Amino acid sequence: MKRKICFITGSRAEYGLLRKLMLMMQNSQLVDLQVIATGTHLSKTHGETIQEIIADGIKIDSKVNIEISGDSPLDIINSMGLTTKKLGVVLSELRPDIVVVLGDRWEIFSATPAALILGIPVAHIHGGEVTQGAYDDSLRHAITKLSSLHFVATKQYKKRVIQMGENPKTVFMVGGLGVDAIQKSSLFTKNDLETSLDFRFLEKNLLICYHPETLISVQQNTKNLSNLLRALKAVKHTGLIFTLPNSDTGNTKLTKMILDFVSKNDNAQAYQSLGQLRYFSTLKYIDAILGNSSSGLLEAPSFHIGTINLGDRQKGRLAANSVIHSQPTKKMILESLSIIYSKKFQNSLKNSINPYGAGGSSAKIFKKLLTFPLDTLSSKTFYNIN
């Protein structure tokens, strides 16, 4: 009998990581793949990225619109409640054998209580990580406790999940999915990428990915982004490629600031969503990624480029030596850029190693999801470390 495995995806970034694994599932004769698309996948404001899933030929069983109509804390809370309610209905109809989720987004967190109450085990990917500057950190750990099967990226993260009371027999160290995605991508040539982006690369080029830090005020987020934009204004002969913020609290103001900056600077362009292929291709041709996206730590090191990680949004996450941590002030950002372009730092990038592994994580997860005895996940006890 085919195993019914249901993936819930809510954002462009998380789908990009799951893409290879989902395609493996769809092409397997042993799996009945179910896919629920929700979150910003269905939002025109955030690029309606459900089209990327459709373009990959993946059948979507249900589209769950959670009405992301604002970005205040109460708007997010309202959407979280709606997500749990709607996904509960869909899961009760699909009745999968197991639900697969990745990461720490509030949309994904909202799915897990519904699965728990319905008695459907949850497999969680990329647990055990720490990002102290966002409420995603707490949501990630909560998802771990609501899940029964765990696929983590490093030994350190495996230890942390077990420390949270999860049985070691259900925790598997598989590496980061981002590395897998990179290895299987046929990237654009520089000319084709410039045509696709309608953007001409300059002598120097930076990719800027800045999202709200959800544990600080909207006013402080605005100030931090303003500092970043003032620093970028001072940089000469540099092409600036922006990806717009995600749907977290306060994103509307930040998006407006970026679009205003781009409209006044010919060397800058902004995109709602680059899509995985254009995103990885862009990483190939830029000098560094600048901002507070997890991609700067998870994927950028595999391209042997520098990362300037701003603020506390990713604080605590394991990082390669290609990552420079900087506070979001104009002075420190410019100092970090100076280091990035230094001969010494550029030479060090040749030997940088991505701490999230060398690939193969999708195949490892695929095998476990097909063979792990799901009947043993019907109930779990707290695992005490002696």
Short recap of the structure:
This protein is α/β, with parallel strands linked by helices and 386 residues long.
Descriptors:
386 residues, alpha/beta, Rossmann fold, 2 domains, 7-stranded parallel beta sheet, 6-stranded parallel beta sheet
The helix-strand sequence is: EHEHEHEHEHEHEHHEHEHEHEHEEHHH
Uncertain runs: none
CATH superfamily of the largest domain: Glycogen Phosphorylase B
- Please provide the count of β strands: 13
Computed over alpha carbons, the radius of gyration is 20 Å
* Side-by-side strand order of the widest sheet: 3-2-1-4-5-6-7
Average per-residue pLDDT, rounded, comes to 93
Can you count the helices?
15
Helix content: 40-55%
Q: In CATH, what is the class of the largest domain?
A: Alpha Beta
How widely separated are the two ends? 40 Å
Structural commentary:
This protein has 386 residues and is α/β, with parallel strands linked by helices. It folds into two domains: 3-175 and 360-377, 3-Layer(aba) Sandwich (Rossmann fold); 190-349, Glycogen Phosphorylase B (Rossmann fold). 42% of the residues lie in helices and 16% in strands. The chain has a seven-stranded parallel beta sheet with strand order 3-2-1-4-5-6-7, sandwiched between helices. Helix 1 links the parallel strand 1 (3-9) and strand 2. Helix 9 runs parallel beside helix 10. The protein starts with a strand and ends in a 15-residue tail after the last helix. The mean pLDDT is 93.
